Amino acid sequence: MMPSSSNNRAWLIALASAGVSLCLGALSLWLILPLIDGRPAGAGGSMTMEVSKFEAVPAAALLRDVPAADRPSAARLSMMLSAAPSIEAAQFPLLEVDISMTDSESRLYLFWRRTDRPDTLFSLLLDGAGAGTSWHEPALHAEWRGTIEQLAIGGFGAGRAVVPDLGVVRLHGGGRGARVAQLWWHWARFEPWQMSTINQVPGARSGAPLSPTSAALTWALLSMLVLTLCYGYLRGPRKPWLVAALAIIFVPWVGLDRLWQARLDWQLELTESRFGGLTQVEKHSRELDRDLQRFALSVAERVPAEPEHRVFLLHDSKGHNYWRLRLQYHLLPRNIHNFGRGLPVPQLEAGDFILVLHDIAGLRFDRSEGTLSDQHGSVPVERLLLRPGGALYRVRSASVLEEV
């Protein structure tokens, strides 16, 4: 039996209503976006700063002004690009930059001075910057206020000092267009899997004002509300409208699925480019903790694997720190006592090993006397290994241990 024209018309109306509902739902989401993300909104529009006004200046003298909490360890400040814009911070909560760094290990920071505190340099990590266009929100920093008399962009890196390749620096007032562009950058930008990814893979970076899952859910709910109103007004057979309702749910879900699949594809490309075609030994040399693995190999060559040879691992951290646990893993099956940061003087015996990972404040090795000491006491030791990542000692005599 051929379907009647009225039946075809009912399907057409229902599916067209679904399309209109999705469009109106997206428009409604656009309109209520400032209410959803709850971020500061500035009174200004957009202001593009001329790249020619940014001058490269040596920045080593400014390092002492950077707050300790914002200063990466074992890194140095490269050249900075500085300008004097004279702007009101409250008008521009968002920052868009297009910048590239030749050193992939560098971390870029935004620096600024205020007219009311000209002797203080404030800083904000530009998370994700250095590989093209990126969006940031200086308004979330407590000191982004008043009149900004100087803006600068600089990088922390272990390599030689380099000048960032600056393309665009644009300040935004927090309008809907800028907010949507910021959101899309957070959602679409790729972040490689980290060591913690085995436990959780977030839908969006922690800095994103709104997760793509929440946005898709809100879009679907708003669209379903519009479709319900359409059904109440137009009526008709229920089956086409049920299919239209399923489409309202299906379309946002497909969008989320495609975003997830794109990230998996990016991760596959990155993994293949880093490890493809390499031997197992070569793969280890490309891993993120390759320096720690080299250090662990040097330690393993000097520490027997028998359980009577105890190794006390010291690291300036509390709890389940990644680096100390990772080093313990690489040293298996050796008998590792991985507990604290201070010398366990009462537990030490002659022949025990003390493994120090990274620098520990207050821990001192006296080469002339052959002792390792801290606030807990002094231990006679022989230093077996010294590397940038740490040192290995062996206790010489238990009879001369001194506990403070």
Helix content: 25-40%
Radius of gyration: 29 Å
Topology as a string of helices (H) and strands (E): HEEEEEEEEEEHHHHHEHEEEEEEE
Q: How many helices?
A: 7
Average pLDDT number: 80
N- and C-termini, Cα separation? 97 Å
Describe the fold and architecture.
The protein has 404 residues and is an alpha+beta fold. It has seven helices and 18 strands. Strands 11, 12, 13, 14, 15, 16, 17 and 18 form an eight-stranded mixed sheet that branches. Strands 2, 3, 4, 6, 7 and 9 form a six-stranded antiparallel sheet that branches. Helix 1 crosses helix 3. The protein starts with a helix and ends with a strand. 26% of the residues are buried. Mean pLDDT is 80; it is low at 69-77.
Keyphrases for this structure?
404 residues; alpha+beta; 8-stranded mixed β-sheet; 6-stranded antiparallel β-sheet; 26% strand
